């Protein structure tokens, strides 16, 4: 998401930074491009107008235009105003001091509400004992979907009895169930509609009066653009929302909802779904989002993913191999598995500052299929072959290719790339500022240097 907007902004800022001194007309020209990019990203035009005026007020000041680095200062101003637009600080989920904490999950049908409910429960499960409750009694499929997702994620589930049609009875039963089994967080997956009608709103209002909830969280599809802002406004008017969760933020939509929803409604965006897996949920951080929109990367997000990867235990094995300057195909397989845990490779690479501007290394070059093929090749080898690739001759290469569903050429390429990495492994600790380059073609691209 935001690819088109990021490319436009990068072009604007590159022009500004290339000039030694800026005039007010230079700033006006740049802001016209910023305005056009935001409108193309489906941001509400009133929000765009307010944002651009705020940027201009600061950017044409004497301190900026007469500074040594005016282009950089304008870039910093745009970043700060974008961050302010989306909310200066992350807004954490509220946990009630007197359990249970009750989250009323609301939203339209098809917006990702049921999946998001389980994602939040799983995110909280490290320090709490959540219970998800099926409150959509009109669609039996919704109850079954929630039950299956909860079971897969090892999260507590409560649903209606056969033939039960009173949603308030289900809520009361869920509260008793949670109390008996010490669940301290209850997430109510409510009914959705294609539109925000009065019948739906009255049902949700009745549930809110029954509890009342700790949080009223609206799940909106980030790919619906300005329509998401209208939906948020309608729900907020009736239910007094406490937070918004954006689903499908990893999609290909223009992303205007992420930029405008807080400005229009006053409700903070608390979380964002960034993938299909039940663990693909992030705390929404306006500063990090602004960095990614502007092509500045997301170093903090990347560090968190690396930390999570390291916590899984594989990093210790890799570190031990590095210490011994011994690199086998088993180590290479482990690295592939560690990288996959970080999420889609192109999304991870976008977190690296300046990655989108790297010549010949766009997201199209990062091929997850190539990594899966490489893993299959290694997994088709015997333990002896993984630890001592020198024994892999012609007949073995044909057997490995057949076992992995690839070709002898693919096996040869992987072994050649492994040999490059093995040599680099011995020198890794001596590289200093030169960094470490992954072999060309390893992920289907042209290689990449880490520093």
TrEMBL record:
The lineage of its organism: Bacteria, Thermotogati, Synergistota, Synergistia, Synergistales. GTP binds at residues 107-114, 189-193, 247-250. One of its GO terms (biological process) is SRP-dependent cotranslational protein targeting to membrane. This is Signal recognition particle protein. InterPro entries: AAA+_ATPase (IPR003593), P-loop_NTPase (IPR027417), Signal_recog_part_SRP54_M_sf (IPR036891), Signal_recog_particl_SRP54_hlx (IPR013822), Signal_recog_particle_SRP54_M (IPR004125), SRP (IPR004780), SRP54 (IPR022941), SRP54_GTPase_dom (IPR000897). It catalyses: GTP + H2O = GDP + phosphate + H(+). It comes from Aminivibrio pyruvatiphilus. Belongs to the GTP-binding SRP family. SRP54 subfamily. One of its GO terms (cellular component) is signal recognition particle. Part of the signal recognition particle protein translocation system, which is composed of SRP and FtsY. SUPFAM superfamilies: P-loop containing nucleoside triphosphate hydrolases (SSF52540), Signal peptide-binding domain (SSF47446). Involved in targeting and insertion of nascent membrane proteins into the cytoplasmic membrane. Binds to the hydrophobic signal sequence of the ribosome-nascent chain (RNC) as it emerges from the ribosomes. The SRP-RNC complex is then targeted to the cytoplasmic membrane where it interacts with the SRP receptor FtsY.
